Amino acid sequence: MNIIGRLTKDAEVHRTAQDKQVVNFSLAINDSYKNKQGERVEQTSYFDCSYWISPNVAKILTKGALVELTGRVSARAWTASSGELKSRLTFHTSTIKLHGGSKKIEFTQGFTEQDNTKIITPEPAEDLPF
């Protein structure tokens, strides 16, 4: 699945109990459609995203950045202690493409330049936790 959106805050690197590093970030995706009355309805969906391949990518994933992600989505629903039903969409990212931006970006291992985008193409990983 591919999604394109803007980061809602800077990415953060977390370490799991198994000493693996994961980059977590949130993406907002805007969409619009016309309802039965012909009115335009704006809708924003939010995805919690994870990237397990390289923690170095967190340096370029800053609030407001426009990114295109390839990966898979998972949904989770639960009941909070207050009894309220909650749900969350998580996007398990395998490829990140950064679009546009006027800042100079330093390349790290795994980055290549193509046109005006920065592409991160991961090497296959055998031990991903999902």
TrEMBL record:
One Pfam match: SSB
BP GO annotations: DNA replication
Gene Ontology MF terms in the entry: single-stranded DNA binding
Taxonomy, superkingdom: Bacteria
CDD domains: SSB_OBF (cd04496)
The UniProt record lists the keyword DNA-binding: yes
UniProt KW keywords: DNA-binding
Name used for this protein in its record: Single-stranded DNA-binding protein
Organism: Flavobacterium xanthum
Higher taxonomy: Bacteria, Pseudomonadati, Bacteroidota, Flavobacteriia, Flavobacteriales
